[in-house]
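Protein modeling request. Please complete all fields; requests missing the sequence field cannot be processed.
Requester role: graduate student
Desired output: 3D structure, token encoding
Chains: 1
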Amino acid sequence: MNKGVPTLLFVDDERPVLDGMRRKLSDQEDRWNMLFANSGSEALEIMDAQPVDVVITDMRMPGMDGAALLDEVRQRHPSAARFILSGYSEREAIYRTLGPAHQYFAKPCDAQLLIEAVERTLTIRTRLQSPDLLALISGAKTIPALPRALSELFERLQSPNGSAADIARIISADIGMTAQVLKLVNSAYFFVPSKVSDVLQAVRLLGFELIRSVAVLAGVFEAFHTSGIDMAAVLQLGNRSMMIGAVAKRIAEMEKLDAAAVDQSQCAGMLSHIGSLILFANRPEEMKSLRRELDASGGELILAERRIFGACHSELGACLLSLWGFGDPVVEAVLEHHRPSAVERPAKIGPTAVVHAAQCLVKPGLAGGDLDALRKGGLDVDYLRQIGAVDRITAWMAIASRTNKDCS
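Delivered output (408 residues):
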């Protein structure tokens, strides 16, 4: 076994399937340690004996099925990424994987698709240096939805007058529900030819019954139940995220980005602070202390988060979205929405630049400022100049101002 390289564990009760997987991935042996188990119990024995980075399991197995295995892994080894690779497609069985599984792949699965998914997961996880935070993200079963949004969702789902647009509006107003619905529609179970980043499209593809069934059977849309959570701050975060998404969409449309990039920009804007929501739900006291500290000192949020938590909200959010199989443009835009210059590929106006600009321009008092004021407020003016967008800032500020008026 190669030390210092990621370890993957494949679980299937059929030995020929494991042998086939071993052959398909033989060219990865220098990059990954690959282990194989014939049952859930054998897989847990292996994981109890040594660290495993990614578990990839079949769904239908005797004794302990894939969903039960991954739920056990989530509790006992929360830092491991959890994938389902299965040809079993009964609807209720799929629901059971939505919590414990980060991603679902249908058999037969192209080897390159699986390799790329694993690589994305491993790459983004290297950004999280704190084992506790990696376990927090990997162990997150769902992202909690706000109680008001959840109540409104079920009311409209049950109403004879409810429309797809109504349901999409309610879901889009809550970043937790947005993430969970898009996670579901982009799973392999629905055979969607390309990544879906638009909530209305997702609702139309899933339908009311499926949205309702997911909410009931999988417990996807949970309310905050943890005591001590600063609900005023969570509501403020939700409203700001909505605004970022709306401004990002309008900027992307003005720049004549293609339809997919427009959807990705809005999606990434809405989810840009999903890492903060995870921290509110799981580290409420530390988040209160952080807010008090920043209110008193006016310090920089990212530096304070890294000092207190070991990672910042953008890294946490991108890690979670990558685990759930969101597309690279959305993950990248969430990851680098505070520092787009970190993107390694040739720079151009795209979701990352658009979301970065939107999250700065929605800040109170910045939309009408000059370049120096915007730079002090966090706008990477040098990056925008590098990609030929600095002369677009005035028009983008006007979009942010109009959007704020439209949404107020």
